[in-house]
Amino acid sequence: MQAFLIFAIGGFIAQLVDGSLGMAYGVTSTTILLTAGLTPALASASVHLAEIGTSVASGISHWKFGNVDWKIVGLLGVPGGIGAFLGATALSNVSTEAAEPWMATILLALGLYVLLRFAVRPLQRRKLTGVSPKLLAPLGLVAGFMDATGGGGWGPVSTPTLLSTGKVEPRKVIGSVDTSEFIIAVAASLGFLTSLADARLSWVTVGGLLLGGVLAAPLAAYLVRIVPMRLIGVGAGGMIVLTNTRVLVKALDLPAPAPALVYGAIVLAWIALLTYTVRVIVGERRELDNLEEEAAEPAAS
After folding, report:
1. Which of 43, 56, 71, 93 has the fewest C-beta atoms under 10 angstroms from its C-beta?
2. What pLDDT digit, counting tens, does each position of 148-169 carry?
3. Distance CA 42, CA 18 (A)
4. Can you give the pTM of this predicted structure?
5. How far apart are CA 249 and CA 151, in angstroms?
6. Are 188 and 48 in contact (CB under 8 A)?
7. In this structure, are residues 139 and 188 in contact, taking their beta carbons and an 8 Å threshold?
């Protein structure tokens, strides 16, 4: 019972982050399971089985709050499912740890771009023209493969790439990526169940992650609906930078106290940008309120 509660709390936290920022459910959950002693393949399989349920709950919640672009879901999710099945099969037979630093470098660059773009440029003035299928299909294939082989990666690969285009509202990027994750979870689970037929999956683990994720899904979808677009972008960008810096620091095996200094500098810079973004948002709202008051005065007189 204690283990079930721990995994349920982990699933709740992971889904709260994932549903509001469009990433990190798999990364967070897999980290918990690896710490508990599961092998990478079993950890990823457990997470994806749980994600079948959490992605349904998250998708319904995002749909109700108007956060889903179904065109993106289809064009991104179907190739993603193919990549996820292939990735699950690959992970069941071979390790892909050597690719982590290279992918982390790419994601770190995307994270920095998203972080700075959302912090310094007003999204309201951009034309939200939508993303081309020529980007969505290969992106889904790569993200699905990385998600299955790394126990997480659908959000960290898909969300920053789509956010960096500036052509889709951040809340719809997050909602669409979360909703399409159902396809990836099903495909990856089929791949793992086929390749790990003799392995013993713990349904206590899967059930705990599932329960926590389902409970957190509506709250996360509501948060992404009411939180300003720029603030979501800065939050997502900071999360991407911090997560992938940790992978690179681990790969480089930096001696103490270098890792702590690096993480501290990133967190301080992230907090500063979040503070700046909040001040800009508050200032813009005050300016808009003043303009509305000025427009209402002649009408009243």
Report:
1. 93
2. 776 667 877 888 788 777 778 7
3. 21
4. 0.65
5. 19
6. yes
7. no
